[in-house]
Amino acid sequence: MSLENTLPAAAGKVAQLSHARPSEQMIAEIARPLSSAEKLWNQSLVRKAFILLLLAVAWQWYAQRLNNPLMFPTFSDTTAALWNAVAQGGLGSRVLVSLKILLGGYTIGILLATVLAALANGTRLGNDFLEVLTAMFNPLPAIALLPLALLWFGLGNGSITFVLIHAVLWPVALSTHSGFASISGTIRMVGRNYGLTGLNYVVRILIPAAFPSILTGLKNGWAFAWRTLIAAELVFGVSSGSGGIGWFIYENKNQLEIANVFAGLLTVIGIGVAMDSLFRLVERRTVNRWGMKF
Q1: Percent of the chain beyond pLDDT 90?
Q2: pLDDT tens digits, residue range 20-68?
């Protein structure tokens, strides 16, 4: 068959298929209501809970097979230790100590990052200043500054707060600056036409327009700060004999209470998962609802 005869035939076949009516089976499949099990499985929370259940079962099976509580306690022993630590061992107060220090350093880091990003957006010198500082300090692990912080601020919460500010400042500043730089000229002119300048211009124009990038920076900053806090408390707790969750983990490791160590790690993971869910909720209520994410 020649090419001239093949092309019309193929085109006719495509047209015939495109105008074909869906079969009754297809219509019935589309119109069929979802069962209760399918509706339940469509919930993200249910699927994540199922994954966690599988991980818990795998943990229990492996620990029982290993049969060495000093190396790897079972999931049931860990949850029992977690319950006892919360009810009797003061784990709740340790969590409050850690969160109090973390929120202080996190807040100060966000404020400083906002100031640096605003200066970088306003002047070329400010932009160069932020680029130089981030190139110098962003690759530097925050925990590496803890020995200097102990010399400068002594054995107190100021040392941990200092390293937390370092952990938060640079990722938040970079994301905020990137968000400011991506704002279109039209939005900027709207703010100028309304006579907004200085802090009003930043708060009413720049921050709302750059909010997706800022939210990403806040999320990354929280993750860095949380990891830094636990690591700093391990060192700081050894020095001062007190502290939050990190000191709880270290203290129980020295006493060979490995189930309590795993209970402390579960607490760290649980708080991290809860904060991630909170950030996702904020993203759904703001970025997704406002149509700022594609």
Answers
A1: 18
A2: 455 555 555 555 677 777 777 777 778 888 898 999 999 999 999 988 8
**How much is the average pLDDT of 89-107?**
87
Report how many domains make up the chain.
2
The residue segments making up the domain with residue 52 are 3-67
186 neighbors 193 (Cβ within 8 angstroms): no
Within 8 A by CB and 6+ apart from 227, the residues are 167
Q: Are residues 86 and 19 in the same domain?
A: no
Question: What span, in angstroms and rounded, lies between the C-alpha atoms of 106 and 110?
Answer: 6
User: In residues, how long is the chain?
Assistant: 294
Sign of CA dihedral 231, 237, 240, 244: positive
Structure tokens at 240: 């001062």
The whole-model pTM stands at 0.77
Distances (CA, A) of 47 to 61, 116, 245, 258: 21, 41, 29, 30
Same domain flag for 223 and 94:
yes
